[in-house]
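Example S7 (structure tokens).
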């Protein structure tokens, strides 16, 4: 039975799609008598079955040769478009993470959206979301992965715009969709170019192809940059990082998935594309620059936010920036560890703040306080999730950073500097949020806040236990995607001081946040310089305003010019031809005398004129 489930593990994403289809009678209002919950339960059952199926298959795939399945979708002449799947410990581990987080988030949604009038529609969209994520996890085809990424973009649009009656939600969904589309279009260009240079469109062939088919320097650089664009949008990296901040307008259960495994899906595709980036140092350097700028910039943005969701969404972009750096350095298994550590810890933190939002009916952290005594389970979940992300002993973040800096990998001084800054600012941000939300005296919005109901508490406590025992699980951290050991080792001196310094940075951030003055809305800084810095960070470096005055202005200008050209040039020429036809017809009607001899004479004169012109043209040659 277990072997059969392993062989059919390629069907796991279909569970989510089937669950979405089963909810349709309730989602579209065909069934009203039973309420919305039966549709939600059906989708939840399908997600549970996918999790069980994936768990059994994951336990069977260890120490086995990866299995490749190929389905020929379209074969015409020399064109063979195949949909390839890869069943390996990495792919089944990724799909296990997807189904597990989706199961917890959907169970959490039963409590969070208990009174929502369209609960079945939300669960149907979550099933569609899960199907796309699961397909990306096991896909070995560039073509199939791109199609699934497009499904992911559509799912993001629908879930962010779930409460479509609110104008701000509609704007956020539109911006998230269009921002991701920018990266998707450039990624499609890269995939088309790659298919013209390579033998096939599978990730498993990329390493061999990259080693045996060198490209010209310019071609390799442009190819690598185009392939980076898609994951840049999916992972909310600079300059396509603003959509994740706006996507927080959607329901929090969808935010749990979006900030844990959805952004990881783009980075997962980036990891599998890593052999292409070795063809040109330009693409590798671009990954490092994009990741470094996002990691530091997003960490700075986070410490100035007062919306509890946005404080954590910017942190998501920052940690995904570290993944970009790891891929740029060719350290793909470090990137996988970063993804796994971040996904479970950030999912737990979003479950915690979801409970805070539901019980206080507020997202403004300056209006909260004193929740630790009223919501102990929620408080513990936030603390455990924050410590799981920071490089503080003994949770998962510490072991991930320790593996990165233990001297087995290239670990330059600039990388240590980035990790120090990110760990310090993340610790400062998480401790600041903890003090404002959970510590201190209760305020107006938190005096009567109860603990969350059991449908929310059960997945939250379960994920808390997972984060706590994660470092103790004897996982075989083998270098799955790059089995050869690193060729360049770190400086022993840097390796010896890296982890103590990273630990010190995290502790320093917590101590600074514990001692700094807590500024509420009525206590904004009076000093012009301090106020400017705060506003500069809180408004995301005014990147949105910069886009409005540059890119958006140019697009609007081009649209206005195109409208003018269409109205006065294209339509003008068409109207001119029409008017000329009407006028000539009106003029010619007076030459119709009704006498046949005049018509014959006109024809003869015309034929003669044509004959003379033809003879003259012939004599000229």
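Recovered sequence:
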């Amino acid at each position: 039975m277990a072997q059969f489930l392993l062989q059919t593990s390629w069907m796991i994403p279909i569970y989510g799609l089937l669950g979405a289809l089963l909810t349709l009678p309730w989602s579209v209002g065909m069934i009203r008598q039973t309420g919305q919950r039966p549709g939600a339960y059906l989708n939840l059952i399908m997600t549970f079955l996918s999790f069980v199926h994936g768990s059994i298959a994951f336990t069977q795939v260890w120490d086995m040769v990866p299995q490749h399945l190929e389905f020929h979708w379209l074969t015409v002449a020399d064109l063979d478009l195949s949909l390839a799947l890869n069943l390996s410990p990495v792919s089944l581990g990724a799909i296990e993470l997807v189904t597990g987080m989706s199961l917890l988030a959907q169970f959490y949604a039963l409590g969070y959206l208990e009174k929502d009038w369209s609960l079945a529609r939300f669960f149907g969209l979550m099933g569609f979301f899960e199907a796309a994520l699961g397909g990306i996890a096991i896909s070995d085809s560039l073509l199939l992965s791109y199609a699934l990424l497009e499904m992911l973009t559509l799912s993001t649009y629908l879930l962010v715009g779930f409460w479509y009656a609110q104008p701000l939600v509609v704007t956020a969904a539109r911006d998230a969709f269009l921002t991701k589309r920018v990266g998707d279009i450039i990624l499609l260009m890269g995939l088309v170019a790659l298919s013209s240079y390579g033998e096939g469109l599978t990730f498993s062939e990329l390493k061999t192809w990259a080693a045996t088919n060198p490209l010209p320097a310019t071609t390799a650089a442009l190819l690598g940059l185009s392939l980076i664009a898609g994951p840049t949008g999916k992972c909310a990296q600079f300059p396509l990082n603003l959509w994740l901040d706006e996507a927080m307008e959607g329901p929090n259960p969808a935010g749990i998935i979006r900030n844990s495994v959805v952004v990881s899906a783009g980075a997962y595709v980036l990891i599998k594309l890593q052999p292409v980036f070795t063809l040109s140092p330009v693409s590798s350097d671009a990954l490092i620059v994009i990741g470094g700028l996002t990691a530091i910039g997003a960490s700075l943005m986070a410490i100035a936010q007062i919306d509890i969701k946005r404080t954590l969404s910017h942190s998501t972009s920052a940690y995904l920036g570290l993944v970009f750096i790891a891929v740029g350095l060719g350290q793909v298994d470090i990137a996988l560890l970063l993804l796994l550590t971040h996904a479970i810890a950030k999912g737990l933190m979003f479950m915690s703040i979801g409970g805070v939002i539901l019980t206080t009916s507020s997202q403004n952290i300056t209006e909260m306080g004193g929740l630790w005594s009223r919501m102990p389970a929620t408080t513990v979940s936030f603390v455990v999730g924050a410590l799981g992300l920071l490089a503080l002993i003994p949770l998962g973040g510490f072991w991930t950073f320790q593996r990165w800096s233990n001297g087995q990998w290239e670990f330059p001084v600039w990388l240590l500097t980035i990790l120090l800054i990110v760990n310090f600012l993340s610790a400062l941000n998480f401790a600041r949020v903890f003090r404002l939300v959970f510590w201190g005296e209760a305020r107006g919005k938190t005096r009567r806040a109860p603990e969350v109901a059991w449908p929310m508490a059960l997945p939250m406590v379960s994920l808390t236990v997972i984060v706590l025992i994660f470092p103790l699980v004897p996982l075989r951290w083998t270098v799955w995607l790059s089995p050869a050991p690193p060729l360049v080792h770190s400086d022993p001196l840097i390796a010896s001081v890296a982890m103590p310094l990273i630990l010190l940075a995290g502790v320093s951030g917590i101590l600074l946040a514990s001692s700094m003055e807590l500024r509420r809305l009525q206590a904004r800084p009076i000093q012009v310089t301090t106020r400017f810095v705060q506003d500069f960070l809180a408004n995301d470096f005014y990147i949105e305003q910069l886009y409005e005055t540059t890119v958006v202005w140019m697009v609007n200008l081009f649209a206005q010019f195109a409208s003018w050209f269409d109205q006065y040039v294209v339509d003008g020429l068409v109207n001119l031809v029409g008017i000329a036809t009407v006028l000539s017809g009106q003029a010619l009607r007076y030459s119709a005398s009704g006498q046949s001899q005049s018509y014959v004479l006109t024809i003869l004169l015309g034929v003669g004129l044509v004959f003379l012109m033809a003879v003259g043209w012939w004599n000229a040659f």
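Notes on this example. Residues 474-485 have pLDDT under 50 and may be disordered.
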